[in-house]
Design goal:
Structural class: alpha/beta
Number of strands: 14
Number of helices: 7
Number of domains: 1
Strand order of the largest sheet: 1-2-3-4-5-6
Distance between the termini: 40 Å
Helix content: 25-40%
CATH architecture: 4-Layer Sandwich
CATH class: Alpha Beta
Strand content: 25-35%
CATH superfamily: Ribonuclease Z/Hydroxyacylglutathione hydrolase-like
Radius of gyration: 15 Å
Shape: globular
Bound molecules: zinc ion
CATH topology: Metallo-beta-lactamase, Chain A
Oligomer: single chain
Length: 202
């Protein structure tokens, strides 16, 4: 599986294009359509949103219309995306959810013969969802290299972040791809998660 990281010009958020034998998956939509198109080879099978903040969702409908595929996201995006005060994009609002498949809690999908697990991980936002594809965790703004997402934005919660970290501790991933900054290994995240579990438990 080939994974291309594209850094957007909105708060340096990451968009990832994953090329599998059966087609591509895209995680987050902050990067311009043009940049993403140059990384896509073949058919796009699905788009995933890790959460509804503007820097991750800005181009999502451009992608879904261009590639003709569905957008998977936690169901709480229907509260976050229509409201700029909650998605932090000036004048940014999505009210048309016809291209969306709304996910509830944790579960498993099969798309193009590919298994994708999803984990509801609130704390940074109430619509945060992490995705596991072939031992690669797409962690959005929940886990960073040496950090976690801020919990002081709308719908954030330290207590929920703590239980999301505990949940991710038990997920079998080798590499975490975060919504900003560089990737991290399982070993790096073991340390990172422990540090922030202690910090959030105080
Ligand atoms: Zn965010």
């Amino acid at each position: 599986m080939k994974i291309t990281q594209i850094v957007s010009d909105i708060l340096d958020s990451n968009t990832f294009v994953c090329e599998t034998d059966n087609g591509c998956f895209i995680f987050d939509c902050g990067a311009s359509l043009e940049k993403v198109m140059s990384a896509v080879k073949g058919k796009v099978l699905a788009i995933f949103l890790t959460h509804g903040h503007y820097d991750h969702a800005k181009h999502v409908l451009e992608y879904s219309k261009t590639f003709g595929c569905k957008i998977y996201a936690n169901k709480n995006v229907t509260e976050i995306l229509p409201d700029p005060a909650k998605n932090y994009g000036e004048n940014f609002a999505i009210n048309d959810f016809s291209d969306f498949v709304l996910l509830d809690g944790d579960g498993q999908l099969s798309i193009g013969g590919q298994k994708i697990e999803y984990f509801y991980c609130p704390g940074h936002s109430k619509c945060c969802c992490c995705y596991l594809l072939n031992n690669h965790l797409f962690a959005g703004d929940v886990l960073f290299f040496q950090g976690i997402g801020r919990t002081d934005l709308y719908g954030g919660s330290k207590l929920e972040m703590l239980s999301s970290l505990k949940k991710l501790e038990n997920v079998d991933f080798e590499i975490a791809h975060s919504g900003h900054d560089r990737d991290s290994t399982r070993l790096e995240q073991n340390k990172n998660i422990k540090v922030f579990e202690r910090f959030l438990s105080r």
